[in-house]
Structures are given as C-alpha cells and as structure tokens.
Amino acid sequence: MRRIIISAVIALSLVAGNAMAESINGRLGLTGKAGFIVPLNDSSINGTTFETSTGFAFGGGLIYGFCNNFAGEVDVTHAPSMNVKIGGIKIAEAQSTDIGLGIQYRIMPGNKLVPFIGIGADFIKGDIDASTLDWTVGGHVNGGIDFFLNKSIAITADFRYLFGAKSDITQNGVKVGKFDPMNVSGTVGIRLFLPEKWSD
To answer: How many CB atoms within 10 Å of residue 193?
Structure first.
C-alpha cells in the first residue's frame, strides 16, 4: 500500500511538472508561419473599382511572455502575389506587407493546448504593378492556439482580422486611387522558445 501511495505521488508530481512546463513567462519565442489572406473590400483606381483575390501569405515574428497570461508580439505578414481583377479579368498583381505590434491574453497558460486572443496596431504597405501604395496604419484582432510539443517547441494557428485607413495609389507621383487594406488571414506555423536563462 505504501509503495502504491509513493508511486501515485511521484506520478502526480511529474504530471504537474509537465503541465506547468509550457508557461512562457519571461521567455522569448521566434515564430514562423504560412497560410492565406482574404481581402474584404474592393478598391479603386482611376475611378474604376477593382477586387483583390485571395492569396498566399507567410511571415514570422517574436513573442515575449510578460507573465503567465500576457505576452507581447511583433508580427510581420507578407502576401507576395494577389490577383487584381476588374469584372473578373486579371489586370495586375498586388502584394502587401503588414507589421503588427500586439498584446496577447493567453488562456490556460499551464496546459499543452493554450488558446489566446489578441489586439494590436499595424503598419501596412502594398504595391500594385506599375503603381505604388503609400504606408497606412490600422489595427487587428486575432485569436488562435499554441500546442506545445515540449517546453521549447509549439505548433501555432492564428486567425486575424485586419482593418486600416485606405492608402493612396500613385503612378509616377500622381494619386490615381485608393486601396482598402481590410482583410482576414489564417496561418499555421511553429514557435521556438529560447531557454529562460538566455532570455534573462
């Protein structure tokens, strides 16, 4: 009986240790990700409305745990090639880059599966063939999950809604239209967390 009790205590201690191993408090993480981006609003050039199609997106960033439940994040997402269409006909290609600064609230930070929600500010830049899109500012809300394979590696999934002020489209220095950066995106990737001593 005594042996069973001792074994049970040891087993519970190991489970508790593993459950708490996934906290990122005071730790720096590196993120790489890939997925899709879906523009939500049409834009216009020379008075003609055009649509931008769904495209591939990839990026990465840094995350740092301020405490068990809150983390700061710097995120860069790039969409290298999205079709620009008028009346369903492709007329050009567009690309966009979003640099986001955000705060996460991490739910159940001691578990292997950690849901999170976030909010932040964004700086957005784009280009269309033969045209330039000015920088614009906006914000985002996002949510997702981190699944920890071990203390240092997590698989992550993130869904993000981005909104921002319309940016000017210029050709040869002349304003010819407006681009609306509003979109939703979904990505999956991996986070690599550095050891706590290195973070210190």
So the answer is: 24
Whole-prediction pTM:
0.81
Is residue 161 helix, strand or coil?
Answer: strand
Is the model's pLDDT at 4 over the cut of 50? no
Question: Strand pairing of 131-133 and 136-148?
Answer: unpaired
Report how far residue 193's alpha carbon sits from residue 16's, in angstroms, rounded to the nearest whole number: 20
What 3-state DSSP class applies to 21? coil
Asked whether residue 122 carries a pLDDT value surpassing 90, the answer given is yes
List of domains in the chain:
2-199 (2.40.160.20)
- The DSSP element (H or E) to which 173 belongs, if any, is none
The number of helix segments (H) and strand segments (E) in the chain equals 2, 13
Adjacent-strand bridge partners of 182:
none
